[in-house]
TrEMBL record:
A zinc finger (C4-type) spans 55-70. Transmembrane segments: none annotated. It comes from the Bacteria. One of its GO terms (biological process) is DNA repair. PROSITE patterns: RECR, TOPRIM. This is Recombination protein RecR. It comes from Megasphaera lornae. The keyword Zinc applies. PANTHER family: RECOMBINATION PROTEIN RECR. Residues 78-173 form the Toprim domain. Belongs to the RecR family. The keyword rRNA-binding does not apply. The gene is recR. Keywords: DNA damage, DNA recombination, DNA repair, Metal-binding, Zinc, Zinc-finger.
Length: 196
């Protein structure tokens, strides 16, 4: 039976990270909300879709172009942190330890999914490096297979360019226990150890 509630559930299920149980829970919740709250939700969704765009310089999501980060003259313009998604920009910004610029690739290399270098914003990164005073590129892709492949690809691509290319360190989370860490995380922690 295909009811309006089933169709709404299916729309929620299409969202990343939402399984059928959560989708159903969200659908029931929205149907039971007062019409005013549903209208606010719909308006917020429509407004975000209409007013958000990709920054023409770094390809981060923003409500203005260039984005506030690219527009901020106080940012360190000698370094660019290369990330996969706009969510990654938010994560690095929350750390409070980075004050440079960003470049959002809009994904990672994944040949099995048909995502090659031409599907990412790599060409635009190279153009930015030609026209600026960038001294360092920090590669901050995810530590998964696709992220590592992307990092290696970028490192090789940037090798002939007279710019320092670094990779973010990886290892154990603060407050984590060694006994619960997986092998890859422990290997990264040992490989990226620091002097004391």
């Amino acid at each position: 039976m295909d009811t309006p509630l089933d169709r709404l559930t299916e729309q929620f299920r299409r969202l990343p990270g939402i399984g059928i149980k959560t989708a159903r829970k969200l659908a029931y919740y929205m149907v039971q909300e007062p019409q005013e709250k549903v209208n606010e939700f719909i308006h917020a969704l429509q407004e975000a879709k209409q007013k958000m765009c990709f920054c023409s310089q770094c390809f981060n999501l923003s409500s203005q172009d260039p984005c506030p980060i690219c527009s901020d003259r106080k940012r360190d313009r000698s370094m660019i942190c290369v990330v996969e998604t706009p969510q990654d920009v938010l994560a690095v910004e929350r750390s409070g330890n980075y004050g440079g610029l960003y470049h959002v690739l809009q994904g990672a290399l994944s040949p099995l999914d048909g995502i090659g270098a031409d599907n990412l914003r790599i060409k635009e990164l190279l153009q930015r490096l030609e026209n600026t005073e960038i001294k360092e590129v920090i590669i901050a892709t995810d530590p998964d297979v696709e992220g590592e492949a992307t990092a290696l690809y970028l490192a090789r691509l940037l090798k002939p360019v007279p710019i320092r290319v670094t990779r973010i360190a990886r290892g154990l989370p603060a407050g984590g226990d060694l006994e619960y860490a997986d092998e890859a995380t422990l290997a990264g922690a040992v490989a990226n150890r620091l002097e004391m």
